[in-house]
Amino acid sequence: MFSKSCLSWFSYQARLNKMKQKILIVEDEFIVANDLRIMLEKAGYKVCGIAPSVVKALELITTKEPDWILLDIFLQGDKTGIDLAGQLTGMGIPFIYISANTNQGILEAAKATLPYGFLVKPFREKDLMVMLDIARYRHEQNLKYNQPSQPSLHTQIEHIAEKQEPVADRLKQISAALHPVVPFDFLWITKSNPRTSTKDINMVRLADGKFSLIDNQSLLKAMNVSVRDFKTWNNSAINANGKSIFNGYDFRKLRMESPWTQALSDHYQLESALITEVERAGEWFQFVFFNQLSDLYTKVHTGIINQFSKSLEIIVDKVVYGKDPVSGTPLPASNIIEKPVITRVSDPENTQDFNGITGNSKLLHAAFKKLELVAPDDTSVLILGESGTGKEKIAQTIHKLSPRKNKPLVTVNCAALPLTLIESELFGHEKGSFTGANDKRIGKFEQADGGSIFLDEIGELPLEAQVKLLRVLQEKEIERLGGNYTKKINVRIITATNRNLEKEVAEGRFRLDLYYRLNVFPIELPALRDRKEDIPLLVDHFIAKYGKKGSSGVTQISDAALNELQDYDWPGNIRELEHLIERTMLLTEGDTITHIELPGAASANHFSSEDHFKVKTMEEMERDHILNVLKMCKGKVFGAGGAAEILNIPSTTLNSKIKKLGIKFEFVK
């Protein structure tokens, strides 16, 4: 009787808390909006209004003062939910998107405005309640840590603009940051008033997805356009007449009115454009995003561009028309590329080292700051970064700095879990629950009770397991396979992935509600190519590390060799750098590394093809090894003499690895 009373009291308190929450629905489809209202009121929430447009929503926000907003993206009028989202962020009002569109472009645009959730139409009542619970939890954590409301894209562009790197390199990085939210195949930045084309920026997206900066002279040569024609065609900026979106007929009309646009679109097969202008000290600058797809740009993209007008101003001020951070002189024209100055770290006392992750770059310090902030709490953490950036070390450090440090940290590699045993591995099973279950098994979550669980490569988890994981996160309880009771657990969740989870969601491989539940406190680890200023420090660290083992007499590296490391792109990140330094030390005679054998074209000027080698990541080596064994077995995976038997792993595990590593049958022939 006492237990039932307690449950009733807690249920009453939960309902009372919901009743205190006023929700405004911003949705232009009345049937959808009314269904939402009925669901919310049934669950105990108070709906303070329904708005079909941004204008009406702003009126109701002023008079009703809602606590939450459910926000559709496409609304009546010229403004979209994306436009309203920027104002809501400034007002400090949390919101959740509701939309029928979950393609990657929409998700990227939505993510940039920092919503607390994203609900996909059509949805069930249960989906709405789960998303609201997740959103409230994320909002509470956000308030607790007082995380900045500035969209991450702006912060990213701000950081790139401040880098001590050539203009071309920074513009390529900015293009890569902008492209997910405003996709383009060609970007033209020009001073529109007073008109000048001498410092035009022409950024083209290549077939491999990378970006290339082309100066006007090279562009004219590639297009077979004379300088005289260029001056005639490009003597004025595009006259947009107040429009920003040019698709279909509008783009064809734009081509007729602007000969330079026509020449560009003919050469690069461009079919649509998005135009915006920024003003700096009385001068106007035009950003023209072109795309090869027709009818691509929508009001959503206009809203995003409006949201990030400050980012465009930074690009103009600090990258295109400012001072070069390397030389201090006015920035060179786009065809001039200067080498960055390599600076040695001379003050190791100011270097932060978290569990073996070393560096002085702003991006890494930002990650360390987040780590220090969240580690003492129980908040879920999602660690994002490419392979080789040190995600597992960050997870270990979070656990070590938390009150759970004396309890276990259980690490699970989701990519290595056999498909048929995932549920058993994570949640355990009872004896006899399935064929071969001869004993009771304690799952990873139960092993981590009181401590932390680190789910590495969470993006590899199958959809069926994602449903179970979400329930565990929500209910804080597990049920063993074959069991008939649940067990409460107290576990901190730390996850990591090198995948783009927004893309996985858009393509239906990752649950949207689980993504928002895990992405409560993201820590992004920068790729090594984005923090090259740390390379000298890292090299010194690895030389000292392997020098202590006594296998080499190397104690330093020459400036020339260090320059080679700075010029390389580091697809394998810090792990690749460490392996390369270790190998180079073993091959070096004397105490100084004077040259580096880098993979690919970077080493072509120094070594013959016979001497060339590639430092491979662990994943690449694993792929090659499996591929060689499969060739030896003539593609046989199962049974006697099969690759699984030779590798001494279950055939299900081998199949998972074959799929993950992208090994196709034609490679085995």
TrEMBL record:
One of its GO terms (molecular function) is DNA binding. Pfam families: AAA_lid_14, Response_reg, Sigma54_activat. Keywords: ATP-binding, DNA-binding, Nucleotide-binding, Phosphoprotein, Transcription, Transcription regulation. The keyword Lyase does not apply. Residues 22-136 form the Response regulatory domain. PROSITE patterns: RESPONSE_REGULATORY (PS50110), SIGMA54_INTERACT_1 (PS00675), SIGMA54_INTERACT_2 (PS00676), SIGMA54_INTERACT_3 (PS00688), SIGMA54_INTERACT_4 (PS50045). One of its GO terms (biological process) is regulation of DNA-templated transcription. Residues 357-586 form the Sigma-54 factor interaction domain. It comes from the Bacteria. The modification 4-aspartylphosphate is found at residue 72. CDD domains: AAA (cd00009), REC_DC-like (cd17534). PANTHER family: PTS-DEPENDENT DIHYDROXYACETONE KINASE OPERON REGULATORY PROTEIN-RELATED (PTHR32071:SF117), TRANSCRIPTIONAL REGULATORY PROTEIN (PTHR32071). This is Response regulator. It comes from Pedobacter petrophilus.
